[in-house]
Each structure stands twice: as C-alpha cells, then as structure tokens.
Amino acid sequence: MVEGSVLVLNRHYQPVHVTSVKRAFTLLYIGAARVIQPDFSTFDFESWAALGEAAAGDHVIHTIGRAIRVPHVVVLQIYDRLPKTKVRFSRINIYARDENTCQYCGRQLQRTLLNLDHVIPRARGGRTTWENVVCSCIECNLKKAAKLPHEAGMKLLRPPVRPKWTPSFRPPGQKTAHRAWLPFLGVVDASYWNTELVDDE
C-alpha cells in the first residue's frame, strides 16, 4: 500500500511527478503538500486524517490510533516549476504514440508482433526520427521493404509526429492509475522506458 502511486501537482495544479504513498504522506505531514480531491477541495494532514474511513472502498493506512485514507493526488504548497518534457525517442514510446497499432493496416497487436518501419527507407536517405519511424506489423514491414508507402500500394493511417507527453504518469498502453487523477491530466501521458533510439545522420 505505501508503495502505491500518488500524483503530485505543483502549486499551479499542473502534474509534475508520480510518487509513492509513503513519500506523499511525508510531504503531507511536514506541510509541504496538501491532499486535493477531484472537486478541488484541499486538506492538510490533520483535516485529511480526521476524515478517517469516511469514503467506503477507499484504501486506508492503519496506525496505532486511527485509520487514514490513502491520498491519490497531492498539491505542493511552494513548488511552481514544471519538469522538462522532452520525450525519449525509444521503441516503447513509438509503440505508445501509435497505440500498438500498425500504421499501414490498422491492426492493434501485442508488441511482440510489431516492428518499427522507416517511412522513407534508410537506404533512400530516411532518418531515424519521430517524423520518419512508425509502428508496423511484420507482414506490412516485409511488404513495404525498401519502398516508399505509395510505391508499395500502402498508405499511413496518420503522419508520424513528435509527441508532447508529460512525463511518466502512466505506462504506455495502460490506464491512468486512479480515476482521481483525471481532472488534473489534460494530455496523453507516457513513461520514459527503454533506450533512446539514435539517428545515425
């Protein structure tokens, strides 16, 4: 329970981090953060602890004298910065951007059945960049080979672009950890998994 996920907002209510329940309670206890609910009501440690097990179904931490509900979102009282949002150019993040879907035939598949394809083949000067690499099934990848999509009689579902994700609020392809996060997440999120891909140029 103490290693569960808690969304951390800066004082402008912008998501900046995901932390453990243990760390969130520490921030709450020392007054560095307040719990915030989806209706934007906030609680310091004492007022939050006073709620006890008021909401049926919520997870709680039991201490010797009381039960305290586990917060899902906390807002920092002073911190007003945002983390850098450069998204790592990696295989897993390309799969996340393309939603594990072949960008030629439209089939959504397990990652083990997917591949990466250079829209403009490397043999013809194509770069290994966000704007030239797409998720592809193995069959479409073999069919396209070293051709341009139109030469192979294929068409992209959508042009590949560099994503503008905020960092690590949920792993690619998975739902947000808690419904209580939704009012505070305005964009598609993904984590920074795996090795960054490199353009040889």
Commentary on this structure:
- The chain is α+β, with helices and mostly antiparallel strands.
- Helices cover 15% and strands 20% of the residues.
- It has helices at 21-29, 45-51, 91-97, 138-144, and strands at residues 5-9, 15-20, 33-36, 42-43, 60-62, 67-69, 73-76, 114-118, 133-137, 166-167, 189-190.
- Strands 2-1-7-3-4 form a 5-stranded mixed β-sheet. Strands 5-6 form a two-stranded antiparallel ribbon.
- The longest helix has 9 residues, at 21-29.
- The protein starts with a strand and ends in an 11-residue tail after the last strand.
Keywords:
201 residues; DNA Binding (I), subunit A; two-stranded antiparallel sheet; 4 helices; elongated
Brief synopsis:
The protein is an alpha+beta fold and 201 residues long. The protein has helices at residues 21-29, 45-51, 91-97, 138-144; strands at 5-9, 15-20, 33-36, 42-43, 60-62, 67-69, 73-76, 114-118, 133-137, 166-167, 189-190.
